[in-house]
Design brief:
Number of strands: 0
Distance between the termini: 16 Å
Helix content: over 70%
Organism: Sphingomonas abietis
Strand content: under 5%
Number of helices: 8
Keywords: Signal
Order of helices and strands: HHHHHHHH
Protein name: DUF2059 domain-containing protein
Largest sheet: none
Number of domains: 1
Structural class: mainly alpha
Length: 195
């Protein structure tokens, strides 16, 4: 459950961190992604990555993710209170996780992310997006985003819970049925009893 909460929180945080890049862009005609972006487009995509400063966004969002996880875990207890020692252990784990975020965003990862933008946008589009990131409204948006995301996350998680539970149960059944029909694949599971 905690892994699922962290994954949902991290995905939501990444999506929210990327949101400013799309906020005011008029939809362009759909074009196929470029297989290999040229040097100018890659340079513009790298500039956009610097302008969005995803590392700072994640550092700011991380503690709020911890709050959202704690709030969600509280729902597992009848009195909605985590035992103090459990809360302390979770807080320590979240602190370690947040502290490790900078190590996740290596120059290689940032470059891979930039390449994705470069395959889907022109150099001119990327330059325009970088300029938009400097707009005072966008600067304010990025500044308050961790707080607004923290307020939204419990709502999103609560809204998603019925679908998540049903989806997870469905996937578990599909895998269990597959293993039953294809027992040779049981050994390929990380945890052979996981189905």
């Amino acid at each position: 459950m905690i892994r699922r909460l962290l994954l949902v929180s991290a995905v939501g945080a990444l999506a929210a961190a990327a949101l400013p890049a799309w906020a005011d862009v008029a939809p362009a005609p759909a074009a196929p992604a470029a297989a290999t972006p040229d040097a100018a487009t890659m340079a513009a995509a790298r500039a956009l990555m610097r302008a969005t400063d995803i590392q700072a966004q994640m550092r700011a969002i991380g503690p709020r993710m911890g709050q959202a996880v704690t709030m969600q875990l509280q729902q597992s207890f009848a009195d909605h209170q985590l035992p103090t020692e459990l809360q302390s252990q979770i807080a320590g784990a979240m602190q370690d996780f947040v502290g490790s975020m900078d190590t996740m965003f290596t120059p290689q990862l940032i470059d891979q992310m930039a390449a994705i933008y470069a395959r889907h946008f022109t150099a001119a589009d990327l330059q325009h997006l970088s300029q938009m990131m400097q707009d005072p409204a966008m600067v304010r948006f990025r500044k308050v985003m961790p707080d607004t995301l923290a307020e939204m996350m419990p709502l999103i998680m609560t809204a998603m819970r019925p679908q998540q539970d049903a989806f997870q149960a469905r996937i578990q059944k599909i895998v269990a049925d597959w293993i039953q029909q294809h027992p040779e694949d049981q050994a390929k599971l990380r945890s052979p009893t996981a189905h």
